[in-house]
Amino acid sequence: MCGIAGFVSKNEISKEDFSRINDTQNHRGPDSDGVVLNTLYEKQIGLAHKRLSIIDLSPGGHQPMCTSDDQIQLVFNGEIYNFNILKSICESQGVVFNSNSDTEVILKGYQLWGVDVFNKLSGMFAIAIYDKQKGKLILARDKVGIKPLFYYKNESDFAFSSELKAIAGFDFFRKDIDMDSVYQYLAYMYVPAPQTIYQNTYKLLPGHYLELDIKTSGVKQQQISTFDFKSLKTNESEEGLIDRLDDHFTKSVDSHLVSDVSVGVFLSGGLDSSLVAAKAKELSGNIDSFTIGFEDKKYNEDPFAYNLANY
Q1: Which one, of 128, 137, 110, 150, lies nearest residue 213 by Cα?
Q2: Catalytic residue among 1, 2, 188, 242
Q3: Chain-centre distance of CA 182, in angstroms?
């Protein structure tokens, strides 16, 4: 699932200390890791990554990933399902790739399209880009919010990570509890976005990107795009709509099966996971499924999953 982390600060942080902060996310990426440190406007900028290899298992997919001139650096957690299509578009415009990774497609796509690249990505992602020429750190999160991305900001420091405990590792972070979030947690049993349990610490909203001006420390957020439900209005017959839904569903599951490692499914026995498992089996042959069972029969769906797996 990978883990990303980074910071912008006037206080110098050693590579060893930053690596230790990154190590708090070891469980997110056991295959490799990387740390890069930069200086701009008398501030230090760091990016770190823990890698779980899914697409392009070679060192060519190593992160942080940088352009040849080091002007743009990127860390990324997630998977881009249309990366081969975007790669072909980039190549048609003269872009040369050094790997088969979806990470490099985001990097080269940002060079071509800037922040508009986020709207072209089909997949799940949490992305951080350091653009030296523009003097900006940019964070982005997928439209559904599948991949987590937290950030902390005080008057002079900024940090982000896939998990709160990585942010808590920075010396400039203050573990001050946000009482409004405590009230929300007691009411809802979770803390609604964008708040977190800590003060000055937030979840980047799904389908949004954030730009930090490194020189001024100014922050602005913008929505990547919205779903246009009005465009779904149609006079099609029910049969036509069912066929169209099946076509979209098939393409979606097929795109999720693209991987350089084995693919499995979580199978609860409910309608959603059963449909996904059946379609994955249809498209790729045998596929492993995994089910969690409970002793309490009210919550146990083992029999349904068992019947579906046998079927």
Answers
A1: 137
A2: 2
A3: 26
In angstroms, the CA 152 to CA 156 distance is 11
- The closest of 109, 123, 111 to 55, measured between CA atoms, is 123
Query: What pLDDT was estimated at residue 55?
Result: 75
Task: Provide mean pLDDT across the span 239-268.
Answer: 91
Q: Read off the tokens for 197.
A: 């349990």
Catalytic status, residue 2 = yes
CA-CA-CA-CA torsion sign (102, 108, 111, 112): negative
**7 within 8 A of 1, measured Cβ to Cβ:** no
Does 27 have pLDDT greater than 70?
A: yes
The token duo for 32 is: 């490799």
Q: Which two tokens stand for residue 303?
A: 């029999």
| DSSP E strands, the chain | 3-9, 32-40, 43-51, 65-66, 72-80, 123-131, 136-141, 150-153, 158-161, 201-203, 208-213, 219-223, 264-266, 288-290
pLDDT score of 56: 63
Say if residue 228's pLDDT is above 80: no
Count of other CB atoms within 10 angstroms of residue 120 = 18
Question: What is the C-alpha to C-alpha distance for residues 62 and 47, in angstroms, rounded to an integer?
Answer: 13
Condensed to tens digits (0 to 9), the pLDDT of residues 103-137 reads: 999 999 999 999 999 999 999 999 999 999 999 99
pLDDT band at 92 (very low <50, low <70, confident <90, very high): very high
Rg of the Cα trace of the chain? Answer: 21
